[in-house]
Amino acid sequence: MFRRLYNWTLTWAGSRHAPKALGVISFTESSFFPIPADVLFVPMCLSRPERAMRYALIASVMSVLGGVFGWVIGHYFFDLVARPMLEAAGKIDDFEAMKGGTGDAAILLMLVTSGFSHIPPMKVVTILSGVIGFDLKWFILSAIIARGGRFYLLAWLLQKYGVAMAAFVERRFAWIAAGLTAAAAIGWAIWRFA
């Protein structure tokens, strides 16, 4: 089923409705959809590099709005909506483990790491942020920085280096994500404790 959903998402990349589909996928990915927006974003940027920054804007704005929607679900509708979604996705145990030892600093760090690298999944972090009542202003600011940074950086790299960059990112994504996560963690620690 996951493979069919992935392929269905990918078919939108060549459609004239691709920007709208990117907006919808970016919004839903941040709150409940299991496929990352990159599946649509990367082929769109490669096929129309002159529009890559426009696509980054669409993906960033809609991803942040989707994150706010996930926060609202977690804050106001956890038992009604979020718990069944997390159970269906097999993420309820991960969610409960994170919830147990999570404070504001951990949420902020997870927002940055999930925004850049999808680790942990963004939808889990947005819902968790709402459940623990993480300050919505800080939530929005960190989501703008993390998601915007990710999409704009990826758009720039794809514009500049094209298919070669896509292949490089695909092969080394785990290392790139780990490096960005480590840099974000170090930056946060310096800001917090300096």
Automatic annotation (TrEMBL):
Domain of life: Bacteria
UniProt GO cellular component terms: plasma membrane
Keywords from the UniProt entry: Membrane, Transmembrane, Transmembrane helix
Entry keyword Membrane: yes
Membrane spanning stretches: 55-78, 173-191
Name of the protein in question: DedA family protein
Lineage: Bacteria, Pseudomonadati, Pseudomonadota, Alphaproteobacteria, Rhodobacterales
